[in-house]
Amino acid sequence: MQAAINCILPKEWKGVNYGGLERLVMFVDLDCRFDVLSLSRLLKQRIIRANGNGIGHKLNKVDNSPSSKDAHTEYDKELFAASMRRFLYIRCYDSFEFLATLKTLHFQLQKEKEAHGSGVYLLMIDSIGAFYWMDRASPSIPPGSNNRRSLSLQSVSDIAVQEIQKILVVHPMLVLTTKAASLQDKFTSREVIRSTGQLSIESNLDSRTIGSSTNAQLYREYMPSVWQSFVSHRILVRPSDDNKYPKQPIYLSEWLLPSLKLADKFTSNDDGTYIVS
According to the lineage, what is the superkingdom (predicted)? Predict the structure, then answer.
């Protein structure tokens, strides 16, 4: 959400610096969990903070005074409305709707470009694995079959990547996708270590070794080969076991592509996302 807010906010508005890009964002929601109220709340907080009325983002600081609450209710409604108009939302309920959206996206992008005077800067696809189990259960299309109602897991991935590549040729933009783990280990406390072995092309699996205090097993997360060849940057985000801030969830981010031996701990709240030590 913070990436979307950075795009839809202007760089400057009525003499106040907001540091935004004033560009369009298109959000494709595949798991139907996106909360527009959370986006609007974060946007309001960002506007208030830029005007000097926001509460500091310290993890342990809580201000419940009436003056603080009054300050948080004041924001530029004109700026808020103009920014929200730059956020374009699409919801899909299955792979057929997702592929249909991609195939018609060129016309919608062109329409929005003509209406706003600039094209979409950021395309966000939330949870590309939302239909994993439904597509996996679907029968594969037999060779020479004309049944267009049958889509396999592999064919959905192939078509999706092909359509996105076609769109980027005509509408250059950043594409940000998220994917929740289709298979997860049952241990709450674990350490993720990258496997040192070569990844076989046939497996199409991202393999890691997961260790815990009582057991160790191989963790494999499915990622089709067509996505592996298409994705240029990849980050693994998971909950951290750090109990330093019990009232704030701490997350750990690790660069997988390009492979960097770096991991950052961060937390997120209404004021934004912040690196913690």
Answer: Eukaryota
Kindly list the domain boundaries of the chain, sorted by start residue: 2-177, 182-222, 232-277
Does domain 2-177 match CATH 3.40.50?
A: yes
Number of CB atoms found within 10 A of residue 248's CB: 14
For residues 58 and 245, the answer to whether their CB atoms sit within 8 Å is: no
101 vs 63: which has the higher pLDDT:
101
For residue 102, the one-letter residue type is: L
Q: pLDDT tens for residues 191-240?
A: 333 333 333 222 233 434 333 333 333 444 667 788 888 999 988 888 88
Q: What sign results for the dihedral spanned by CA atoms 228, 234, 238, 240?
A: positive
Q: Which of 236, 244, 191 has its CA nearest to residue 214?
A: 191
CA–CA dist 136, 252 (Å, integer): 30
